[in-house]
């Protein structure tokens, strides 16, 4: 796998626990209703996610978030209408995995600031949600001219010694790239495509 930026070992990073991060919806039907309301108010929803690669025991691994011991997702999330994809992704990463300035001790804040911030690199894939359902596609079907959501996945460079503050109701896993290959049954089509993206 070739990149034009350094990939650091997993053991270079510290992980601490922070307060739980509440989910917006209690059920799939609640989420669909919220999607419809948001679409009527501001149009197509945009989201950005981070493809973060580290090494562990000599193999490339992808950092993923597991929510409530259930599904896996890449770090990131939904953007405000006024945010660019790149700036919004940094904001979501800081909200989701950043050290909270209001509660963290000064030495931890100083260490994390010294380490540096996330660096959003190139967009490596785009996914479309044509309808108000759970399905994303790596293309926009020709019969759908008004998708309900677009998701962009960006390579994100980690500075050495970054500190991750993981919400108590989530887990941050490093999954080996070879485990994702052809494994849509467990991780979904986006994750199964990551080995192909990284091999380019």
Automatic annotation (TrEMBL):
Gene Ontology CC terms, in alphabetical order: cytoplasm; mRNA cleavage factor complex
Gene Ontology biological process terms in this record: mRNA 3'-end processing
Keywords for the protein's UniProt record, in alphabetical order: Cytoplasm, mRNA processing, Nucleus, RNA-binding
Domain Nudix hydrolase: 44-179
A matching Pfam family: NUDIX_2
GO MF term (any one): mRNA binding
CDD domains assigned to the protein according to its UniProt record, in alphabetical order: NUDIX_Cfim25_Nudt21 (cd18871)
Gene3D superfamilies per record: Nucleoside Triphosphate Pyrophosphohydrolase
Annotated localization: Nucleus; Cytoplasm
Protein family membership: Belongs to the Nudix hydrolase family. CPSF5 subfamily.
Described purpose of this protein according to its UniProt entry: Component of the cleavage factor Im (CFIm) complex that functions as an activator of the pre-mRNA 3'-end cleavage and polyadenylation processing required for the maturation of pre-mRNA into functional mRNAs. CFIm contributes to the recruitment of multiprotein complexes on specific sequences on the pre-mRNA 3'-end, so called cleavage and polyadenylation signals (pA signals). Most pre-mRNAs contain multiple pA signals, resulting in alternative cleavage and polyadenylation (APA) producing mRNAs with variable 3'-end formation.
Subunit structure: Homodimer (via N- and C-terminus); binds RNA as homodimer. Component of the cleavage factor Im (CFIm) complex.
The protein, known as: Cleavage and polyadenylation specificity factor subunit 5
Species in which this protein is naturally found: Dioszegia hungarica
